[in-house]
Write a structure and sequence with these properties.
- The protein has 65 residues and is mostly helical.
- The protein is 66% helix and 0% strand.
- It has four helices and no strands.
Amino acid sequence: RKHMGMACSRYLAKRRMEHAKTLLMNTDYPIAVVAAEVGYDDASAFSRRFRTLFGQSPRQIARGG
């Protein structure tokens, strides 16, 4: 917690979403595949969390928006 400035679980969740953003920007993977790749069973829950963190939907990021 001291090194990262946040709880370990929050840090890991943020890193997973950053990885998802990279996948969306650099691959043609469907959102459901990206969600599964970063540990989400539910693509809708993934999309909600992604939008909360980045202010854009996964679809917008994937389209380059």
